[in-house]
Design brief:
Strand order of the largest sheet: 5-6-7-8-4-3-2-10-11-12-14-13
Strand content: 25-35%
Number of strands: 14
Oligomer: single chain
Order of helices and strands: HHEEHHEEHEEEEEEHEEHHEEH
Distance between the termini: 27 Å
């Protein structure tokens, strides 16, 4: 966006110079216009910047402490401490988030909320970023870029859509909203409300760099059974929470940060929890608990089996061994996006 804005400034400077030369024979009038024209254009840019900051409504701090500022019906909701989870974000298999405009937003974000939607939903993903954004400059830059179209939402705010990137974008000084559809048509990026997270979600969230609520838990259970080589096991799970923490003992100076995951599996009842724990402990016994020092499915499996699961009523608590960012990339690949 910055490059687009810089090009605009250069183009304007050239046009202003041409206008001044064409009026040089007009004496004082040319001097007057050479001062007024840049001032007038700057006033227009300032007006556009102020309008763009007011077009997208702010979200309250209280709301994002109790839920996700995202649409309902997602199969996964994520809370991300962006600055501390930055090495992980490059591995999320959502190609639209790798686009230049999305990366610029991520770079100035401190907290993000993301949702991934199932195949029967037109919305593919949605992201709400909280940080500091140059919304005025961005609005001018997007307006000058032929690759972005301006649209008006049903709620009355303006947003931008890129057909080539299939991204809808809206932002103000404190929040940015990104959304993508499956049918390749503009989709309003800002959620109409808040998707409340379950009360249990906050129980282990403190200190995590990424916290995920899986409303459709079958993929995670299927993944666990696949990596411990148990097939066709059908056990009911109500929901799953996944939390990623910096690995214990690591410092901020490590070249390749490692993580530890905490999985909370919400089963139908305590009996089901005991059954699943028995299966996992049997797999731990058969593998011997050794962790290969590779970024492979075997290493991911061993990390899941590093510690014996703990039962908390109908919850199963699994704390993994150390995971590299590439290990976690393998974990992301188990989910269809």
């Amino acid at each position: 966006m910055k490059n687009i804005f810089t090009q605009y400034q250069g183009r304007y400077s050239h046009n202003a110079a041409v206008l001044k030369l064409s009026l040089d024979n007009s004496g004082n009038t040319s001097q007057y216009l050479s001062f007024i024209v840049p001032l007038f254009v700057c006033a227009i840019i300032l007006f556009l910047a102020l309008v763009s900051c007011q077009t997208v409504p702010d979200i309250s701090g209280k709301a994002i402490e109790t839920g996700f500022p995202l649409e309902a019906d997602a199969f996964a909701y994520m809370y991300v401490d962006v600055q501390n989870a930055r090495p992980l974000l490059d591995y999320i298999p959502v190609k639209e988030l790798k686009e230049k405009q999305a990366q610029q937003i991520i770079d100035t974000t401190h907290t993000a909320f993301a949702a991934l939607y199932p195949d029967d939903e037109n919305r593919r993903f949605q992201l709400t970023a909280v940080g500091t954004f140059p919304s005025g400059k961005a609005s001018v830059a997007l307006g000058l870029n032929k690759g972005w179209e301006k649209h008006k939402s049903a709620a009355g705010y303006s947003y931008w859509y890129s057909p080539s990137n299939n991204l809808s974008l809206a932002l103000n000084a404190k929040q940015a909203y990104i959304s993508s559809s499956r049918d390749g048509k503009p989709l309003e990026p800002k959620s109409a409300g808040i998707t409340e997270w379950p009360d249990d979600f906050n129980k282990y969230k403190e200190g995590s760099v990424l916290a995920c609520w899986l409303t459709e838990p079958s993929p995670i259970l299927k993944m666990i059974f696949e990596i411990i080589e148990i097939e066709d096991m059908q056990l009911p799970l109500e929901q799953v929470y996944v939390y990623l923490f910096p690995a214990s003992g690591d410092t901020a100076e490590v070249a390749e940060p490692a993580y530890e995951a905490l999985l909370c599996l919400d089963t139908a009842n305590a009996r089901q929890a005991r059954l699943i724990i028995g299966i996992i402990n049997m797999a731990r016994f058969l593998t011997g608990g050794e962790v290969p020092k590779t970024d492979s499915p075997a290493a991911l499996a061993s990390a899941f089996l590093a510690n014996s699961p703990i039962q908390d009523d109908n919850f199963i608590i699994i704390r993994t061994g150390r995971l590299s960012a590439k290990n976690i990339a393998l974990l992301f690949n188990y989910f269809s996006m």
